[in-house]
Known about the structure:
By secondary structure, the protein is of the alpha+beta class. The chain is 35% helix and 21% strand. The strands form 8 sheets. A 6-stranded mixed sheet has the order 4-3-2-1-5-6, with helices on both faces. Helix 14 (307-334) crosses helix 15 (342-354) and helix 16 (421-438) packs antiparallel against helix 17 (448-460). It is globular, with a radius of gyration of 25 Å.
Amino acid sequence: xxxxxxxxxxxxxxxxxxxxxxxxxxxxxxxxxxxxxxxxxxxxxxxxxxxxxxxxxxxxxxxxxxxxxxxxxxxxxxxxxxxxxxxxxxxxxxxxxxxxxxxxxxxxxxxxxxxxxxxxxxxxxxxxxxxxxxxxxxxxxxxxxxxxxxxxxxxxxxxxxxxxxxxxxxxxxxxxxxxxxxxxxxxxxxxxxxxxxxxxxxxxxxxxxxxxxxxxxxxxxxxxxxxxxxxxxxxxxxxxxxxxxxxxxxxxxxxxxxxxxxxxxxxxxxxxxxxxxxxxxxxxxxxxxxxxxxxxxxxxxxxxxxxxxxxxxxxxxxxxxxxxxxxxxxxxxxxxxxxxxxxxxxxxxxxxxxxxxxxxxxxxxxxxxxxxxxxxxxxxxxxxxxxxxxxxxxxxxxxxxxxxxxxxxxxxxxxxxxxxxxxxxxxxxxxxxxxxxxxxxxxxxxxxxxxxxxxxxxxxxxxxxxxxxxxxxxxxxxxxxxxxxxxxxxxxxxxxxxxxxxxxxxxxxxxxxxxxxxxxxxxxxxxxxxxxxxxxxxxxxxxxxxxxxxxxxxxxxxxxxxxxxxxxxxxxxxxxxxxxxxxxxxxxxxxxx
Length: 593
């Protein structure tokens, strides 16, 4: 692939010369600033060969560099080998940021360009501020990749479908009413939605334009008296058109959003999220229109799941738990055969989930890492890298499902043989972190950055750590990663009742193994007393945690009690749905420590 990558970079450099551009920035993005994107928009992947879901490529006439985070360091190193692209590891002290790198590689007054459809307003502002300080000119209206990408995949045109109210739980009018209430509070007349999960949630519609994410390409505007969906009308069935008409939602062609924004008037007051609106769209808004910047109104509302939605998620967790138990039982029976590989494991997981009620698809590509592959945080097995499992060592299994009534994300690390003292020590520290966050009680207003410490303290006490966040928000039959809430050092938003998140501390020893244990949790009210109102977490995921690698002497009595109660709950919820052999197997796996 490396020669192909060099050819593609060569073609890009020719276009840069023609356009009088000295550096071109290629983002992993689409016009909706999605984390996972349609194949049509995978420009950075096509140019660099790096397939991770986060990373930015910068190309000059002589050099090229790619920035990505710690989840992808090992993968990027392998995929960028012999391409001539330098790997810049974000977060490490000696890594220059993009602006500094450009300063080192360009002369003053150079021109830096990118496609304005693929950069958020927030990032555009930061970029222009930093580059102007360096005396660079910046252009945001140049699409060079479109000129050179032959056989580019088409823009998706799959039909969209209604998310029935029996699963969606909250109707469209109630959701629009809540958005309009937020508009009133802000004295605003309209709200621009570009984020795909916001649009799908608001209108109770789903699609399949992006692998694993049940979303479709569209824009929307909600006003105090109307709502308009901007979408390729070829994607709409008669049933969906009737549904939208009944909900009093107008439909316009996808690109007409530009015309609508250009027609905004002086008295209009438009709410938008600068982190979720691309710069090209933003640049169409007339200068005399008042813009009110806010986290997406739909994002704020949908982050706090309604009790009926939590009920749906609990039902989905039972189905997912059954599939996981069937998988773990199968794994135990077959690992010694010499026929089980990382790819086989992913296929079996999908097979077991596919049989479950309300299952639609996986929620992301399964991460199956055996031994040292487990240390690659977002490892994806290929025929070239595919390990065959043996009855020895750690297997990390991170997977999830999209169900009509919820989205799941679970990681279990299973020891396939007899764990060493070091493996037990490491595994137990990770488990302690997961349990301590699960047990946390905290006052209202506590931030994700503060809660992150609960999950890391056991590891920190031994001089150990992990490079990724501890928890991300999870959608409701939507994106497996959603905001604004997160449990990580950089996130300072309060965690509020109804927010569903992952709880996934880990530990990764390069060239040896990786350990991660993940459940989904939901924030709930705990108690109110003279010292204020307190919150806690309920655990949603139902699946046994491997006890083989636990060093029991390291756990406190409280931690043992939590694990035993969790396993008791798993058995109570899942065993009625299991056959005799599976039920007996689960009884054994959930025995008290």
